[in-house]
Amino acid sequence: MLGLNKKDTGLFLFVLALIVFAPFILNPFPESSDLARFNAGYPDLMQRFVIFGIFAIGFNILFGLTGYLSFGHAAFLGVGSYAGVWMMKLLTVNIVPALIAAIVVAGIFSLVIGYICLRRSGIYFSILTLAFAQMSFALAYSVLTPITAGETGLQLSLADPRILEAANASGTIPAANFFGLEMRSGFDWAVGDWVFTFNFGYYLCAVFMLIAFYISIRIFRSPFGMMLRAVKSNQQRMGYTGLNSKPYMLAAFVISGMYAGLAGGLMVAVDPLAGADRMFWTASGEVVLMTILGGVGTLLGPVLGAGMIKYFENIFSRLNESDLNALFGFLPDFIQAPLVTVAQMFVGDGWLMTLGLMFMLIVIFLPGGLLEGVQRLGALVSRKKKTNEPSQPAAAPAE
């Protein structure tokens, strides 16, 4: 199927199923339940799942295949966002020109940055990428304010020319759309106590993630991917064979940057606002955590890592004392009170404690990330199944 082997086809279909049925999977609890606060099936969060999934998939092409750790990939995310908003201001709120500009501008920017940074390797490469990202943040935040709008962020306004659109007589800023279909359009489907939301913007972003995931599979299985693995394995020995690894490294860096640009373009497609905070070093660190948590060098790992971090960031960070009291209300008071006190340290503003603890446990016990945990669990289940199967009687010897 689509040039993929049986295993990769199964993986692709699994991701497709997750995307299609996400509104159901992410809303396991009825609206009337106290556990409904843990539902994640609303459009904004689902869009973030797939957008940051694209970001992490692209980062994994560089880090997972070559071992080169970039601490500056948020710069390409931010550049893609700014390019996308400018296309929506100058041309049209149809997101197609915005996405094209985001990918192209991020690709050019990553080509320049990669050409400089790849002159060094190891920690020196990482520090160089971090330095360029911080310089980009500083330029966007204070120096290039006529282009980036500084700390307020670049956004659409009624005065924008939008030369490819007819004059707007309504007096309102038009909504971002895909050939007339608004990104925020959708509908709710009530089934008993459950409410499932289907949003066009989410499914369009999901299509791009599927395309990005498919391309990453082809890269991983291609001769180009094998060359990148050779760089990670032993770059010096590769040089002894007469192969120049620099073009391969630069190509991987640019491809990874274009993935980040696409993610930035999709971010402004669903919410037309670009700010300098997207280029800050913490945003670059976030995609590193996503990839490591999910599983470096695996195909599905970065998607799982992105989903987990965004879930904790958006669900656990909004829990408060009243939510915890409602959650543990079935317990006796002498147990509920201390439990709520302890749990408060890991939710709300302290959700990063939860993330840090989870990251520490995974690095110690599952160095291959969440995907390694899934594989271990699958192996354990299959081993138990084999153990429980009745042994076949030995065949009678032939006379």
A few lines on this structure:
With 399 residues, this protein is mainly alpha-helical.
Note the main attributes of this structure.
about 5% strand; mainly alpha; 6 strands; transmembrane; about 400 residues; two-stranded antiparallel sheet; about 65% helix; cell membrane; single chain; 2 domains; two-stranded antiparallel ribbon
Pick out the low-confidence regions. none
Measured between the Cα atoms of the first and last residue, the distance is 50 Å
Please state the structural category.
mainly alpha
Mean pLDDT: 89
Number of helices: 16
Fraction of residues in β-strands: 5-15%
Count structural domains. 2
Structural overview:
Its main location: membrane. The chain crosses the membrane at residues 12-29, 49-71, 91-116, 123-144, 200-220, 247-268, 288-312, 324-346, 352-374. It is a multi-pass membrane protein. It holds the Pfam family BPD_transp_2. This protein has 399 residues and is mostly helical. It folds into 2 domains: 43-298, no CATH class; 319-381, no CATH class. Helix content is 64%, strand content 5%. The protein is built from 16 helices and 6 strands. The chain has a two-stranded antiparallel ribbon with strand order 1-6. It has a two-stranded antiparallel ribbon with strand order 2-3. It has a two-stranded antiparallel sheet with strand order 4-5. Helix 3 (43-66) packs antiparallel against helix 10, helix 4 runs antiparallel to helix 5 and helix 4 (74-90) crosses helix 10. The longest helix has 25 residues, at 246-270. The radius of gyration is 24 Å and the shape is globular.
